[in-house]
């Protein structure tokens, strides 16, 4: 003989178990409230466990992924640098050799008198007449000094052309600038030009240039900072 479950009686029984619980110890509650409380406690434990443990695990995993991406990028960069290292070393060697050649062509301050004598002798050796040979004011640049020399020479066309070639072939750097040709009354050709030669800075000049450069950069930064617009306060 099967028993029929009366849903109305079951519902009434469950409701009655949740009545009068206030003030009573949970251990004295009927079965249904105790089961519901146990489920609630387990749910809270699971949620707290997620935030206390799993959340930290997820954060560590994300941090590890970011670190892995960073290391991969660094590895790729270093591989590219290693591949190009040989080419870069070859380029550096070429630059060093070029700079060394230029340095040999720049006299020191003490050697300038000998260079001026070489320029004069180059003209005299070609049979030219120096009507003017006047060194000007030294112009100090960041890494070298420039000496302009006003010259005026007379002679025939071939000798003047040879003199210009001799200037280019001197062991030191000498350039002819602002050249002007004219003809004298006796038919001789006259060349007026500014010969420029260059030399090393001595220790005192180099120090002064570094200080001056630092001061200029400091003033430039201050000027840019002063020109930066400032935001005016809103609503006073």
From TrEMBL:
One protein family per Pfam: PilO
Chain residue ranges for the region called Disordered: 209-236
UniProt entry tagged with the keyword Transmembrane helix: yes
Keyword tags: Membrane, Transmembrane, Transmembrane helix
Entry keyword Transmembrane: yes
GO biological process: type IV pilus assembly; type IV pilus-dependent motility
Transmembrane annotation, as ranges: 35-53
Highest taxon listed in the record's lineage: Bacteria
Name the UniProt record assigns to this protein: Type 4a pilus biogenesis protein PilO
Lineage, broadest ranks: Bacteria, Pseudomonadati, Pseudomonadota, Betaproteobacteria, Burkholderiales
């Amino acid at each position: 003989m099967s028993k029929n479950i009366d849903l109305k009686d079951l519902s009434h029984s469950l409701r009655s178990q949740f009545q009068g619980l206030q003030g009573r110890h949970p251990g004295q509650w009927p079965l249904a409230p105790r089961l519901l409380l146990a489920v609630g406690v387990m749910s809270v434990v699971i949620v707290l466990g997620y935030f206390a443990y799993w959340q930290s695990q997820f954060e560590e995993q994300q941090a590890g992924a970011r670190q892995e991406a960073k290391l991969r990028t660094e590895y790729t960069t270093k591989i590219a640098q290693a591949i190009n290292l040989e080419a870069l070393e070859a380029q550096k060697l070429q630059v060093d050799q070029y700079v060394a050649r230029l340095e040999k062509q720049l006299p020191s301050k003490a050697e300038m008198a000998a260079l001026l004598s070489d320029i004069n002798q180059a003209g005299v050796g070609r049979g030219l007449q120096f009507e003017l040979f006047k060194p000007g004011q030294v112009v100090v640049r960041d890494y070298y000094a420039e000496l302009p020399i006003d010259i005026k020479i007379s002679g025939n066309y071939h000798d003047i052309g040879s003199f210009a070639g001799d200037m280019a072939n001197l062991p030191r750097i000498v350039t002819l600038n602002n050249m002007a040709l004219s003809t004298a009354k006796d038919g001789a050709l006259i060349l007026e030009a500014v010969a420029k030669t260059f030399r090393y800075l001595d220790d005192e000049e180099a120090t002064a240039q570094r200080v001056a450069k630092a001061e200029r950069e400091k003033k430039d930064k201050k000027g840019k900072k002063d020109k930066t617009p400032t935001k005016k306060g809103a609503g006073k």
